[in-house]
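Hey, can you fold this one?
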Amino acid sequence: MNKLLFIILLAATSATAQTDTAKVETILSNKPDKRAKWYDNISLRGYVQVRYNRLLETNEKLKCEQCDKSIGEDGGFFIRRARLIFFGQVSERVYFYFQPDFASSASSTGLHFAQIRDAYFDVGLDKKNEFRARIGQSKIPYGFENMQSSQNRLPLDRNDALNSAAANERDLGVFLYWAPQKTRQLFSSLVADGLKGSGDYGVLAFGAYNGQTANKPELNNTPHLVARASLPIRVGKRQIIEPGVQAYSGWFTLASDLISKGVKINSTNTYMDRRVAATFVLYPQPFGIQAEYNVGKGPEFNKVTDSIETRDITGGYVLVNYMLKFKNQFLYPFARAQYYNGGKKYELDARSYTVNEYEIGLEWQPVKNFEFVAMYTISKRRFEDFAKQNNTQQGNLLRLQAQLNF
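Sure. Predicted structure:
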């Protein structure tokens, strides 16, 4: 009897050891555990941003619809983002990512509605997943700062020049990405190590998408096409640079509810929409530089003719930053200058803009789960549509943001 019990215990110990070994091998190989259930490979993370923009404000008429709707008159404490992110490598070749935002603004008087930001899955086209097809609603691979998560970005809002390419940076389509395994690991470490990386959007990217921006139906029969090349390069022992170039082209149809009565439009309400941009990033070790510039054509309101026309677009930004570490805390002083001249196709009457803006700020991370940003903005914005044909606002304000990471 004792001998039989000994044999049973020995077998159980051996089975446990084999299971533990299999789990360790799975973690090291970064592959899903074949022994695990599907739900064991799903993870959850998220973040919440709460802002206040009215300190030291000099002009309450200065606003930015694209940026933060709580800037200017009647703005108060504001939840800018409240996001849960569900993701996981559910098999060796399939990865999924689902991100709803619970702080979307349904109207000027309705806040905190849930809306899909990302809903896609990646299908690996080779054993190492160096070639991937991304299917669903996701970020359009155009611009470094557009790719960079708002959870990691230093300025409180993205620059007008490149972000005007797509509201919320996303659309519904199919995108192909390629990057060697070592480069994919580097993309990941540039975020994990606090260097404010953009994430893994491949060395080469190509895609086709609707072109009407996220959570909007397609309004014409021609998809947009986009291509991007971006490569992080080690320089010496510490420095990493990342040059890049990207372009997209398509036709954008203005929704009828975003055209004022009296505005002249063409017969199809559809306009050329194309751009090309260049990017340069020096990651902050400890000093960093981030610069992008784009040119192109798109719909824009012309107050001289009271019409929406295809007009030139130009603009970009330069950001300098510094990373300071002490104990487990991080400090990131930064400054950014941006310029933009062109239309915003997804705003009323393809609103016409000229933006000159300067920002200086500081991000403080006392612990991993909490960040605080203070940013002083000096801004001059011309934003004109059919109702506001001579509207240039200039002013300064101090902006504050508290962010929870989990």
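The CA atoms of residues 262 and 306 lie 8 Å apart. Let me know if you want another pass with a different chain boundary.
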